[in-house]
Amino acid sequence: MNILITGGTGYIGSHTVVELIKVGHNVIIVDNLCNSDIKVLDKIEIITNIRPIFYSFDIKYSTLLDDLFTKHKIDAVIHFAALKSVGESVTMPLEYYENNISGSIILFEIMKKHNVKKIVFSSSATVYGDPATIPITEDFPLQTTNPYGFSKLVIEQLLRDIYNSDKSWSIALLRYFNPVGAHQSCLIGENPNGIPNNLMPYIAQVASGKRDFLTVFGSDYNTHDGTGVRDYIHVVDLAIGHIQALKYFETHGCELITVNLGTGVGYSVLDVVNAYQKASGQTINYRLAPRRHGDIAICYANPTLANKLLGFKTQFGIEQMCLDSWNFQKNL
Questions:
Q1: Is residue 162 part of a domain?
Q2: For the chain, percent helix, then strand, then coil, each to nearest 5?
Q3: Domain enclosing residue 247, as ranges
Q4: Pairing relation of β-strands 178-180 and 76-79?
Q5: 233: which of 155, 202, 269, 319 lies 20 to 30 Å off by Cα?
Q6: Residue 235 confidence (pLDDT) above 90
Q7: pLDDT value at position 241?
């Protein structure tokens, strides 16, 4: 299939591109490079021996996006393109709503115009807000504690409404938990522009000496060590989940599915710090700080439905996640 990847040079997008190419799909990437590097294309080519077609523009530029769909016969879309920091979204809500929601509407309008009705959407566990119980299943009430999560919630509803109006669409809403790690080639991984917003790349920069210490936000949660607990999933496992979602539609036809992609295991911030110290052999200095607005205590998935529908099983544990992250960091 010819698959359009929005945000395809980003962290999760680039790993998914590699996995798509490995199983024989043709990939077209569109990315505005606001949080990625054009050099990722070189690294994808080294890993796969294929250089994907690439367009550098924002999907909000509808004319350019329309031209892309006219030029290429797109069979399916995997939609990653979005601003993605919980903390930043609290201080920049307008930018998050404008970018994430408006860009998605334009993409869906152009897909409809060109009769492209197969999409895998990059959603988030943040749509569950602060869950009353854990582990989290897909039928939990939807709520959110921050603008980033709300933008994902709105886009999910847009896609449900599109499907309800036209059952010839095939739509997968994939709710990620916390992607970490890197490709085992050490060529692609999470290397954000500026100060990292996510835990593991920040830890990696402390381990490598680029930053003096890690700030741990919240040490008084009701968890085993007082720090927040999350479900960390290796980015390669996550990427493979997208391939399995596309395969699902090959056998099940037009449908809308909502699936959690996680491991079902929760690790605290300090658990990750300790695992990273073991993997890297480096001391991770950290300082405790008050909780951040919008954060929650515990969040981890029940992955049963992903296994049942998609045959999805994670391969990598926290030790491998930390080791791959460290090897990538050393290779920068």
A1: yes
A2: 40, 20, 40
A3: 2-180+231-263+302-312
A4: unpaired
A5: 155
A6: yes
A7: 98
Instruction: Evaluate whether residue 100 is within a structural domain.
Output: yes
Q: Which residues pair with 6 in a beta bridge?
A: 30, 79
> Is 189 within a domain?
no
Residue 262 DSSP symbol: S
In CATH, what number is assigned to the domain containing residue 237?
Answer: 3.40.50.720
The count of other CB atoms within 10 Å of the CB of residue 137 is 15
pLDDT of residue 331: 93
Q: Tell me how crowded residue 66 is: count the other CB atoms within 10 A of its CB.
A: 15
pLDDT in tens, 196-228: 888 999 999 999 999 999 999 999 999 999 999
Cα–Cα distance for residue pair 320/318, rounded to 1 Å: 6
Alpha helices in 166-268 (DSSP H): 199-207, 235-252
Residue 221 among the catalytic residues: no
d(CA 26, CA 47): 15
Q: Packing angle between helix 147-165 and helix 103-113, nearest 10 degrees?
A: 20
Pinpoint the alpha helices (H) of the chain: 11-22, 40-48, 62-71, 86-91, 93-96, 103-113, 147-165, 199-207, 235-252, 269-280, 304-310, 318-331
Residue 298 pLDDT > 80: yes
Task: Retrieve residue 77's tokens.
Answer: 């879309």
| Three-state DSSP class for residue 108 | helix
As given in the structure block, the two tokens for residue 265 are 């295991």
DSSP state string for 153-187: HHHHHHHHHHHHH-TT-EEEEEEE-EEE-B-TTSS
pTM: 0.96
In a domain, 294, yes or no: no
Task: Kindly name the residue from 55, 96, 148, 276 that is annotated as catalytic.
Answer: 148
Q: How many domains does the chain have?
A: 1
